[in-house]
Amino acid sequence: MSKFKLKDTIDRLIYRGFNVLSELLFYIKRKERALVAQNVQYKGKHQGEKFFIMGNGPSLNTLNQKHYEYISKHISFAVNLFYKNDKFPEFEPTYYAMVDPLSITKAYESMYTEFDNKYKNSTLIADYRAKELVDKLDRRNRSIYLYSKKFPTDHIECDISSNSFITMNVVSTCILIAIYMGAKEIYLLGTDYNSFASRSDVHFYKEEEGLNRKIENRLGYQLKYYHITTEFHYLIAKLAKEKGVKIVNLCETSLLDAYPLGRFEDLINNIIPNE
């Protein structure tokens, strides 16, 4: 056995033990269990429907009003700082995910407010630890809280009504939620997935307009992070195949190879790419 395979084997054993401990801790947290158990109402809620999940990559700037009008006819997810997008002000995503690690801190409070002011009807998806911040928005039944403490090893699941899996990437989280909700087809946009290979903007907005925080930009960190998140995407692709869910990445220049690439124009013209 090579040293790389040996390390992978040891890592899997460690994370399997970590997941067992995580489940035990979740079991004794009655308040948190009761909170995420409410998510069962979303299981199969959009059975057989078409979903669009929009990351915040620079390719999002290529979308026009025709694209947003098409997306508006289906179930959609937007994430993090998408609310800064003003190209089609009439557009309002069905769901809006803010699950960045910083989303549980005071640094996100103004972002929650800005999001809420713009998208009154979108259902917010947030970490359970952000509940106090979200409650200030008085969103009542328009919020979904996640408790994600399990680390994927050789499989991943999409049950958000229990202790769900860590994905380290908000788009990955949205894909799992879409599968849980009964999606038949999932289309990805703004998923350039190339910040480790580019020194240009990695989001559709200018970086200084985003959250003011220190970002680790060293190549070694980027490659390690993308390695882990890409392995998770492979597991998600496997799960989708098992459940008969088609996932197509409509960002034609994306470096993410877990899903087949497609063209938005072909989709509009009912030319759907094969797996």
TrEMBL record:
Pfam family name, one: MptE-like
Ranges where the 6-hydroxymethylpterin diphosphokinase MptE-like domain occurs: 43-193
InterPro entries cross-referenced by the UniProt entry: MptE-like (IPR002826)
Record-given protein name: 6-hydroxymethylpterin diphosphokinase MptE-like domain-containing protein
Native source organism of the sequence: Sphingobacterium ginsenosidimutans
